[in-house]
Amino acid sequence: MARNVSDTWRLDHPWAHLYSFGMARRSLARAAGVIGFGTTFQGLYDAIDSLAYTPRGGTVLDVPCGAGIALAGINRQTRVRYLACDISPAMLVRTREAAARLGVPIETLEADVASLPLADRSVDVTVSLTGLHCFPDPHAAIREIARVTDDRIELTWLRADAGTRYRPVIAAGRAAGLIGPSATLLEVTDWLSAAGFLAYGVTEGAFAYVSARRCS
Ligand SMILES: C[S@@+](CC[C@H](N)C(=O)[O-])C[C@H]1O[C@@H](n2cnc3c(N)ncnc32)[C@H](O)[C@@H]1O
């Protein structure tokens, strides 16, 4: 069977190490983001920081969790249930290490975002950071994230309609099997709307940033 983009990530491509190292260091990530993608990643760090306002006892789903950069947003006093989900066992090890360093209790799920082992509306907040462009079927991922989320969704991704300036880097990512078909901002807001969410999004450089709340 042909390999898809998720298979590349599951096998822990060397880029996964480099990416995890860079994104955990905000000033390094911002500099790389501006040079490579025309974005400071402010929207991504805002999504992480917004996790501090999760109500006490609420459930957060982080998919894909990667090396656990979103854990930095958790306020340990709030006692949230944190579900870290990724298709890559190596990434889940990195997330467990990050959680231990930060003293945040987590549960890990090795699963495909397109088939989450979670009940309908069982999660309060889902963050999916730099994820959609790494999935073979972004629409299936959005449907599944929406199914399990009761209140709020935060998404950031490398958009399918990024300008010509970014084509070489996207072509290199596709050649390496790290970037899939992705989606435009309009496609994602339409998919969220069809799934019962009101979505607000912006683009900055090659990236899109969306916040969505359940409205039905
Ligand atoms: C660019 S990283 C982003 C990770 C993290 N959210 C961050 O911002 O650092 C993409 C992640 O997607 C994961 N991934 C790829 N396909 C997946 C799938 N079908 N289901 C769940 N995770 C997947 C990879 O293993 C990788 O950890």
Explain what you see:
There is one protein chain. This protein is α/β, with parallel strands linked by helices and 216 residues long. It has a single domain, classed as 3-Layer(aba) Sandwich (Rossmann fold), CATH 3.40.50. The protein is built from eight helices and seven strands, in the order ααααββαββαβααββ. The protein has helices at residues 5-10, 14-23, 26-37, 42-50, 89-102, 138-148, 167-175, 185-194; strands spanning 59-62, 81-86, 107-110, 123-129, 149-158, 197-204, 207-214. It has a seven-stranded mixed beta sheet, with helices on both faces. β2, α5 (89-102) and β3 form a beta-alpha-beta unit. The longest helix has 14 residues, at 89-102. The model has no long low-confidence stretch (mean pLDDT 95). Residues 6, 9, 19, 23, 63-67, 69, 86-88, 91, 112-114, 129-131, 134-135 line the site of S-adenosylmethionine.
